[in-house]
């Protein structure tokens, strides 16, 4: 018996007795109890009531490979070489990077219920509670190395924003270079990692973390939000993952042909900081100015006291001026 099998039974949010669980899983009640303790270690809200049994308060929306594939577009079905759904991993980006090193090709996708060492841009931790949000990565291949990837994180942001807008989220905005915001809170983040020839053929791991039903913000050091707070009825996590992968495949194919220029106008229409006073931090250097959108390569345009400057990704940090 595995924790995953037990979760499948408890996912409905209803009470199930220890005897019922034991019969369904064909194990002793003692074995059931040991697995129930593991659920608490995962941070899941397990409730126990004498005479009624156990339940997960509110149920749980587990990822289903069948449901994800059902939500994929025909193009995505053709371009995604493998859909790998896992329970707990250190990081989906790490899983995909390791797969790439072992010969995986473009289209390999990995999603997990939980990340034990999820990370965001600049090495920051990404809080990844079990089965509450989406954590997934997709492998893609490009010619031309790092130069061909300019503006890619912004294009991925456009893909995420398109899907969310179709779900009725009118307040979605993009923050340079890799954040998706809504109502002033961070809703999603993007992490790109390149492998291979920096001047030639390379593989890129496109990682996305999206808050769906975040129960607590413990460990998050900035304003955040989730889809459950923004939409009356968010789609299931599996459906949403299928929709996001489908849009990503389309955007990555377009980006491969046309670069960021094909997405610049759309990104600027969603720019959360456009024409706002901001500060840009590069190491110990802080530059104040007014954000004026991005150039054709996705570089941040900052109007300063000494003239217009362009900042690219890397270790650059953008903040609204207080």
What does this molecule look like?
With 322 residues, this protein is of the alpha+beta class. 31% of the residues lie in helices and 29% in strands. It contains ten helices and 14 strands. It has helices at residues 3-10, 18-25, 29-41, 65-71, 74-79, 92-101, 152-166, 227-230, 237-258, 264-269, and strands at residues 46-49, 53-56, 82-89, 108-115, 134-142, 172-175, 179-182, 185-196, 202-210, 277-282, 285-294, 300-304, 307-311, 316-320. Strand 12 (300-304) and strand 13 form a beta hairpin. Helix 2 packs across helix 3, helix 4 (65-71) packs across helix 9 and helix 7 (152-166) packs across helix 9 (237-258). The longest helix has 22 residues, at 237-258. It is globular, with a radius of gyration of 21 Å. The chain starts with a helix and ends with a strand. The relative contact order is 0.12. The mean pLDDT is 91.
Number of strands: 14
Mean of the pLDDT scores?
91
Distance between the termini: 54 Å
Order of strands across the main sheet: 3-4-5-9-8-7-6
Question: N-to-C SSE series?
Answer: HHHEEHHEHEEHEEEEHHHEEEEE
SS content category: alpha+beta
Main sheet: strands, sense, barrel = 7 strands, mixed
Which percent range describes the beta-strand content? Answer: 25-35%
Q: Spans with pLDDT under 50 lasting ≥5 residues? A: none
In one word, what is the shape? globular
**Can you give the helix content as a percent range?**
25-40%
The radius of gyration computed from the alpha-carbon positions, rounded to a whole number of angstroms, is 21 Å
Quickly count the helices. Answer: 10
């Amino acid at each position: 018996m595995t924790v995953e099998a037990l979760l499948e039974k408890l996912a409905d949010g209803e009470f199930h007795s220890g005897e019922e669980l034991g019969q369904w899983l064909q194990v002793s009640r003692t074995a059931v109890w040991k697995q129930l303790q593991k659920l608490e270690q995962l941070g899941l809200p397990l409730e126990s009531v004498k005479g009624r049994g156990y339940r997960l308060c509110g149920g749980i929306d587990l990822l289903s490979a069948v449901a994800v594939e059902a939500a994929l577009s025909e193009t995505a079905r053709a371009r995604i070489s493998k859909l790998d759904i896992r329970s707990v991993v250190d990081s989906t980006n790490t899983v995909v990077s390791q797969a790439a090193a072992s010969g995986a090709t473009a289209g390999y996708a990995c999603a997990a219920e939980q990340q034990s060492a999820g990370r965001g841009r600049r090495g920051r931790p990404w809080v990844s509670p079990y089965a509450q949000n989406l954590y997934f990565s997709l492998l893609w291949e490009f010619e031309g190395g790092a130069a061909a990837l300019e503006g890619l994180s912004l294009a991925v942001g456009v893909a995420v924003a398109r899907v969310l807008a179709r779900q009725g989220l009118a307040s979605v905005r993009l923050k340079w270079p890799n954040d998706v915001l809504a109502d002033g809170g961070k809703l999603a983040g993007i992490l790109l990692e390149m492998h291979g020839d920096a001047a030639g053929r390379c593989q890129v791991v496109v990682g996305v973390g999206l808050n769906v039903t975040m129960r607590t913000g413990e460990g998050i050091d900035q304003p955040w939000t989730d889809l459950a707070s923004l939409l009356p009825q968010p789609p299931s996590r599996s459906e949403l993952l299928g929709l996001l992968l489908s849009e990503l495949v389309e955007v990555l194919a377009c980006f491969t042909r046309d670069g960021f220029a094909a997405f610049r106008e759309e990104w600027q229409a969603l720019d959360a900081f456009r024409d706002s006073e901001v500060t840009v931090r590069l190491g110990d250097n802080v530059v104040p100015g007014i954000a004026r959108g991005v150039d054709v390569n996705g570089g941040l345009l900052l109007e300063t006291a000494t003239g217009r400057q362009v900042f690219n990704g890397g270790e650059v940090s953008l903040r609204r001026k207080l």
